[in-house]
């Protein structure tokens, strides 16, 4: 037996490495398989845990709850025939429009959009009850010219969610080892999503389902993201400078890298051609991974291009979040209202592609905030130096 | 127990900015049973025979025989009465002056009623309002009777102060149904059609006395087969929508648009009367506010309601599309019945213009009618039109008014104007 951190030999039953001091064995924090890797030597494609490799069955479209959810258009009652009893708007099926609200501070909306016939976007969220504790936002966008990509993207998002259900590993204490461990888990999440997509793909499909993948994980003050394709994550602080966290794997992004202006590249004929994707015909499943420590309150957003098509720059997206926050009577901190408002904005702007918006509210807790200078109550007198 | 089903025919695709949705809804009733036998109430039949002085001996003899034949068709147990109509209405049978004015049909009452009919003598004028009012009183005298039907025969023009007949029609509307027949050619089609349309019945001409018996038997058989006493076509439209029209288009064209009874702000009932085992088509046109391309919405729920029970429903939809291949198609059924409704209108307006001496308008309208009858495959209308006009070209609707026209043929064209044909089989292209 050797130390997973430094590779030194361990005494049987040791709880700490004699050489580097890293905890080992049963008391080691975090998922043991991840901790057992060295940063430079990931375990390739090997499964990190059984559940993530469980083949996902085809997820059936859950039946729409007839007459329960109010009309998305006018708020009226929806009839047994699935049309609104007031305005006649067709109630979307569960697959065409669904919302997740795992905690008071995290919510997402996945919507077909007005101009599309099918919702190939998917979303899977997780959140701890405690605001700011831990949130996972996964957004996938099924490629519209592939077959059954709506089934595939949802299966993929839910499989990835299983991998990210446990906290990200913290490694062996150094930033490098943590980054490597985190990268390993996120890579495993992408692999799990891909496995699920392949599992629901007809082996004879001439045009196998494919999808993008973006995941944003918030743990306390740290945001970690992973990306394949052109779905995105943004950090949108209330006051500070908004940033696009992910970098698209797209021809447009390649052109931007070559110096072409963003608005030109993103409106070009191949703007939406992606260079990496998940699916049976995927060539490269390695996600782009990154992390950020946040220092002020704001919104973490994961979205599909159905949203960012209409607000691509972080500033434009920030403006939409602000507009939604000011317009919302429930206050700026209601994630469900914000997600709905962002989807409504994209639909109003044209709604040419499926829209997914998942948000987590970051309100840095009292303990996390920069301490205000304490009143000098104990000294009682003028400093003196004699 | 009667079973209803509904089917809808429409092109639900609207172009960008499109607002008008047209649909044909076919409602079919099966297992209707027999009038008055459903247990919900009894059926009542009243036969009204014109006994004014204008009834010639042969017509009167035929009318008596026909009324007696109609009695034979009334199912035992059904409440019935017979009215002799002249410048006032007389209760010919049962001969009572107070209490219930109708009796149940059995062998004895049938024979007594037949004897009473046999004593009819023509005299006096024609005041149809009094006939309708007496029928209403008789139905009202037997609380058990909930399905009310009248068979009315007249041979002449109504001779009353203007408005009296309309008032009586209004009092009867929604209370009883009436099938009306005119004997000979001295009656006014428009006048009798007004009664029949308001009272959800049919109108037709019986040009020769010999045909009267068969017609009466058929009318009464049909009435007895209507096991569903009363039903409404219930139309829901979304907030902000407008009902352009609601028409029955088969078996006959009847505009129901103005006969709406509100159920709630979004829903209205249109009367359809009693149902036998039959199928009727309705043309519903709704104007909805345009939505974005790709949006789908419900333009109408078209239901059949028995009292407050909805027994079947059809959904009329609207989907906005940028695909002009989808949006420019006109549903075959909608096109067919749009043509048939116009055909009815052209015949009636053309004959009215002819009667008023406006030959130019009459020629144009009847020409259009010939064209429409050919296009929609209404052979009955075509053959009736050809007795009134000489046709140069069906395709262009070029016709000449015939110089000598049998009045009965003209009236037959008029009474049959609202009769429609069902669509031909889908072309196999």
From TrEMBL, chain A:
Q: SUPFAM superfamilies given for it?
A: PP2C-like
Matching entries from Gene3D superfamilies are given as: PPM-type phosphatase domain (3.60.40.10)
Recorded superkingdom? Bacteria
Domain PPM-type phosphatase, first and last residues per copy: 148-362
Residue runs in coiled coils: none
Q: Output this protein's name.
A: Protein serine/threonine phosphatase PrpC, regulation of stationary phase
From TrEMBL, chain B:
Under the heading PROSITE patterns, the entry gives: VWFA
InterPro entries according to UniProt: VWA_3_C, VWF_A, vWFA_dom_sf
Q: Which residues form a coiled coil?
A: none
Q: Which Pfam families match?
A: VWA_3, VWA_3_C
> SMART domains this protein is in?
VWA (SM00327)
Domain VWFA span(s) in chain numbering: 44-228
SUPFAM superfamilies recorded for this chain?
A: vWA-like (SSF53300)
CDD domains named among the record's database cross-references:
vWFA (cd00198)
Q: Give the domain of life.
A: Bacteria
What is the name of this protein? Answer: VWA domain-containing protein
Species of origin: Nocardioides simplex
């Amino acid at each position: 037996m050797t130390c997973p951190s430094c590779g030194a030999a361990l005494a049987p039953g040791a709880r700490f490495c004699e050489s580097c001091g890293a905890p080992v064995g049963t008391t080691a924090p975090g998922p043991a398989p991840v901790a057992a890797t060295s940063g430079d030597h990931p375990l390739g494609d090997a499964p990190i845990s059984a559940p993530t490799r469980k083949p996902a069955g085809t997820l059936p479209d859950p039946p729409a709850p007839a007459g329960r959810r109010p009309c998305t258009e006018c708020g009226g009652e929806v009839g047994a025939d699935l049309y609104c009893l007031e305005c006649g708007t067709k109630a979307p099926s569960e697959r065409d429009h669904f919302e997740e609200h795992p905690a008071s501070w995290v919510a997402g909306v996945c919507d077909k959009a007005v101009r599309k016939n099918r919702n190939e976007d998917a979303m899977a969220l997780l959140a701890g009850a405690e605001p700011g504790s831990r949130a996972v936002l996964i957004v996938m966008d099924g490629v519209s010219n592939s077959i059954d990509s709506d089934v595939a993207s949802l299966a993929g998002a839910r499989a990835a969610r299983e991998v990210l259900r446990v906290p990200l590993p913290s490694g062996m204490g150094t930033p490098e080892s943590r980054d490597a461990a985190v990268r390993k888990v996120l890579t495993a999440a992408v692999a799990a999503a891909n496995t699920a997509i392949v599992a629901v793909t007809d082996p004879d499909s001439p045009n196998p389902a494919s999808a993008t993948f973006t995941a944003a994980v918030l743990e306390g003050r740290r945001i970690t993201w992973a990306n394949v394709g052109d779905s995105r994550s943004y950090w949108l602080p209330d006051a500070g400078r908004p940033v696009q966290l992910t970098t698209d794997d797209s021809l447009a992004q390649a052109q931007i890298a070559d110096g072409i202006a963003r608005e030109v590249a993103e409106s070009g004929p191949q703007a939406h051609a992606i260079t990496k994707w998940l699916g049976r015909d995927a060539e490269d499943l390695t996600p782009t991974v990154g992390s950020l420590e946040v220092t002020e309150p704001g919104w973490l957003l994961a979205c599909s291009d159905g949203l960012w098509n209409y607000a691509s720059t972080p500033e434009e997206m920030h403006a939409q979040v602000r507009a939604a926050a000011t317009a919302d009577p429930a206050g700026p901190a209601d994630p469900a209202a914000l997600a709905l408002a962002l989807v409504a904005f994209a639909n109003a702007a044209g709604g040419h592609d499926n829209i997914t918006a998942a948000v987590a509210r970051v309100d840095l807790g009292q303990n996390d905030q920069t301490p205000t200078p304490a009143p000098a109550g104990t000294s009682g007198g003028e400093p003196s130096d004699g | 127990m009667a079973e209803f089903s509904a089917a809808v025919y429409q092109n639900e695709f609207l172009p960008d900015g499109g607002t008008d949705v047209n649909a044909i809804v076919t409602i079919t009733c099966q297992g209707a049973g027999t009038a008055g036998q459903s247990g919900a109430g009894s059926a009542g039949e009243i036969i009204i025979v014109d006994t004014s002085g204008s009834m010639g001996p042969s017509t009167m003899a035929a009318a008596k025989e026909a009324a007696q034949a109609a009695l034979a068709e009334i199912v035992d147990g059904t409440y019935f009465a017979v009215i002799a109509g002249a410048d006032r209405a007389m209760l010919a049978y049962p001969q009572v002056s107070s209490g219930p004015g109708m009796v149940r049909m059995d062998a004895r009452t049938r024979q007594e009623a037949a004897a009473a009919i046999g004593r009819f003598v023509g005299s006096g004028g024609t005041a149809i309002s009094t006939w309708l009012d007496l029928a209403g009183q008789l139905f009202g005298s037997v609380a058990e009777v909930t399905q009310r039907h009248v068979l009315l025969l007249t041979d002449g023009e109504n001779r009353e102060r203007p408005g009296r007949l309309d008032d009586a029609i209004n009092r009867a509307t929604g209370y009883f149904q009436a099938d009306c027949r005119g004997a000979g050619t001295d009656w006014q089609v428009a006048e009798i059609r007004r009664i029949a349309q308001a009272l959800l019945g049919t109108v037709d001409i019986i040009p020769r006395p010999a045909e009267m018996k068969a017609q009466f038997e058929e009318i009464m058989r049909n009435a007895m087969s209507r096991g569903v006493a009363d039903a409404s076509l219930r139309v829901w439209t979304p907030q902000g929508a407008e009902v352009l029209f609601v028409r029955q288009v088969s078996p006959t064209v009847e505009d129901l648009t103005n006969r709406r009874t509100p159920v709630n702000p979004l829903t209205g009932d249109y009367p359809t009367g009693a149902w036998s085992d039959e199928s009727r088509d309705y043309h519903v046109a709704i104007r909805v506010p345009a939505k974005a391309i790709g949006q789908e919405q419900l333009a109408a729920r078209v239901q059949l309601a028995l009292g407050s029970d909805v027994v079947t429903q059809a959904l009329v939809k609207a989907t906005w599309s940028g695909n002009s291949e989808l949006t420019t198609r006109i549903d075959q059924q909608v096109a067919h019945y749009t043509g048939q409704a116009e055909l009815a209108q052209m015949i009636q307006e053309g004959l009215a213009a002819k009667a008023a001496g406006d030959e130019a308008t009459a020629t144009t309208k009847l020409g259009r009618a010939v064209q429409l009858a050919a296009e929609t495959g209404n052979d009955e209308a075509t053959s009736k039109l050809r007795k009134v006009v000489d046709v140069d070209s069906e395709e262009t609707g070029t016709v000449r008014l015939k110089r000598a026209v049998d009045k009965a043929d003209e009236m037959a064209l008029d009474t049959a104007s609202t009769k429609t044909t069902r669509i031909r089989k889908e072309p196999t292209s």
